[in-house]
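Quick log. Single chain, no ligands specified.
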Amino acid sequence: MRYSFSEWTKSGAPWVWLNAGAVAISLIMVVGLLSLIAVRGLGHFWPADIYQADYTQNDNTTRLVGERVQTELISAEQLRDSGVTVPEGVFEMPRTLIKIGNRDHGGTDFIWVLDDHLSNQTQPEMLFAAERREWGNFYGYLRGLKENGELVAQHDGYEVTPEYMALWDQFQQRIDRALTIYDQIKAIEKGDIGAINYELERLRLRERAMELKGITDPARMQEITDRRQALDADYQQLQTELLELYNAFNRDTVVAEIASGKVVEFRIASVVRAFLPNKMHLGNKLVHYAAKLWEFVSDEPREANTEGGIFPAIFGTVLMVIIMSVIVTPFGVIAAVYLREYAKQGFVTRIIRIAVNNLAGVPSIVYGVFGLGFFVYFLGGHIDDAFFAEAKPAPTFGTPGLMWASITLALLTLPVVIVATEEGLTRIPRAIREGSLALGATKFETLMKVVIPMASPAIMTGVILAIARAAGEVAPLMLVGVVKLAPSLPLDTNYPFLHLDQKFMHLGFHIYDVGFQSPNVEAARPLVYATALLLVAVIALLNLSAIAIRNHLREKYKALEM
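-> predicted structure:
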């Protein structure tokens, strides 16, 4: 049976197809975007081959060593404007971005070269890459090892021989030794000495508080003095251990030849890992790739956030979202219950609902300014005056921190939770309320034991939407607590364990900082993609956890709705 165009239009089929097409296009765009982010971000951790080539420019030939990063076409006009001679009839030429590393010797670790000016390209197996804690990657030939300034092993030539592999194995052993000592130093500095410094500061504040209150109890003062002396003794002992560890840590140096032929030295203590990418087979590369991925999600950043990991940012993001959820959920539910169940439905209630809906559309930076002015300066300043006078003029809560960031985002997402909870309460049949009241329950008992449990899936929907919005917000956090680099996590073993006054790192701000504030743009670009992918994964994981709870509650109370 054939339909005319007007009948087909009246049937609604065009709108069905239009909606289906829009959904399909949206899905393709989302999947495409995530795929682009994944490829460009995750590909950064793969151990790329190292090339060696001769590069000729203006009749000067130099040797280059490095990784190929990307290739693009550049117009002949641009090349001529930059002083490069271009043959007639050529309209564009390919150029390649090469990561040459060795920033401490060349001043830059990335360089653009014209492919047509490269010659004698090879991939020597002897070329090695070393990831360092400072000055970026090093590329070159391993020439020797020194211990306390004395040469203990060396190798000449450009071929991989058994003698060279023995030297390489010794190099790896000394790297492992340095990493072990580094972990010990880090444990003492951030663990033991950090705890001592924290307790010394608490003793200072305790002594200052007694001074402000006019307390001159000799016994209490002597207790503080004795404890400080014991801590000082422990500190001196740890300092002695640190000195010995640092002497052992800085014992070894590596001798290497860079692309220019110059032989240089640098401390093995600065090396995170070294590898021979041109000699690695697929299995070795997969192991290396897994180690780099694990470092990215479990380690601290280094090199102005362009190297290392982003664990503090992951931790700060998740902790802030959890605290925000704990704050916003009860307040949002209480407000919704009052508006729906207790408030008289009239003009004032309608105005309040309109105001709540309008709050959802206020730009997030406005919440940040409000949080800075009211929560940080006003409320935090008064808290410092009342409870932390001994710490002044240094602020405790009168400065941006984790608590104010969480409360600000709770305020930002509060309208979402209120609206979702009200919708859930509206869907509860009136007969269920009346049945509970008829059985002798009070209105409060009906709300707590019947209505709110049945509306809990809708409440969780509001929490899911709140998490999705809050986890990705950056603008307000820049004003109320987030920083480029936090020296310690806001959750540790020092009392009171959760330090709500501390500043923290956040994945969204980390993306902004690495992408737009980094001094090394080319090195930071892959980490922008990788961090963005991880932020999406963290938000998805938080949302999936909330969705699982919502589905469980929905199944639990489904029978009551029938």
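The chain has three domains: 51-123, 142-279, 311-561.
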